Predict the structure.
Amino acid sequence: MFKGINRFNDRRISKCLYKNIINNHSSHSSPILLSSIKSFTSLPSYLSQSTSTSPSTPLIHLNSKSFCLNNNNNNNNNIITLNSNSNNKLPIQYNNLYIKRVYSTTTSNTTTNSNDQNNTATILPNEVKDWISKAPLSIQPYLRLGRVDKPIGTWLLLYPCLWSIAIATPIGSFPDPMVLAVFATGAFVMRSAGCVINDMADYKFDSKVERTKTRPIASNILNHKQSLIFLGAQLLGSLAMTLATLNTYTILLCTASLPIVTLYPFMKRFTYYPQFVLGLAFNWGAFAGFSAIQGYCDWNIVLPLYLAGISWTMVYDTIYAHQDKKDDILVGVKSTALKFLEKSRLILSGFSILTIAGMIGTGVAAGMPSIFYVGTGVCAAHLAWQLSTVDFDNPKSCMKKFISNKNFGLLFLLTIILSKLIQWFDQIEKEKNEKEQQQQIKNE
């Protein structure tokens, strides 16, 4: 649709610098000319070339071309307007559309002193879609880069840590609050860092995929240098926190996971099983959580737990990958969704069985009571529900089931906690009986 328009492509607007100042512009509904484009990389799909001349329709003029907002609902809720109110600061955002230093001229190209900031044009969103839109504009791209508004990834990274911490904690004791805080913060920071690494590696692919093309690096809102500085700050902060709080064994164990974390974003170029590599990285907490409490790893306990986590990741991330399978084929990246295709339900059922088997193996090695296996059965039912109801050809259904794995992780954590409580009660009862027997012996 936009072929032949100089310096445009059909993706999105990013990082624009307009010169000149509007003079005596007070009407929001009359057309405005934005000119002298210094940096204009792309045009969003929701802008279309307009032939309307009605003064009631807000128009944007770019290099003598007129554009208005696509509006399938035929209402004005999403119309882009230009405002000369000096209280509006730049840069601004509209539906993930970032524009820096937007200045304008009237349609007659009349210009004034560039110091007249009262007539600086801004694009105003009519509604705030998420809490990040309320944050300072300068940090919004970094929050989106780190997926701060999408905590499901943090939960999926944190749960294996919490599982192993709960198992490793001595019966009748509560985990060290500092350890819990470090792992919670670490999961948040490292998941965010992983997203930065992923986006830096995949920005060319992301720009061609509908779901990911608005990500800050793919859309040129942030460059690689800015992203690398952000990544370095996250890694340094995480390292400092780890060195200050965790034992040496755990520090070395966490360090050993960094090559896997770094390799994951590149695996989709070479193998249909990047989800397996993600499982290796995301479930490393099964080792680190246990060692943070005990100072070592009981491999009879943590290895089955780790394998259960990897199998679980294969389930939820394959479901997630089905959202992008059409775009993945077009851009040439690989995933288990493309490998399994119509056999996904059957194959993921096998991985679900492996997940539950690993959990049971962990329970046996840790000497868990019978309630543990009841809870594990509930977890199995949750996986069965996911796979029996997910529509692999419906992105919304896939996302819903993917997010539901937060509940699966919580169910297993509660199973472990309940089992440890029952072990504690049993221990108290045992100690009480032993004291009574000793007292009877003394009385005799």
Summary: The first helix runs from residue 140 to 145. The two ends are 99 Å apart (CA to CA). Confidence is low (pLDDT under 50) at residues 1-128.
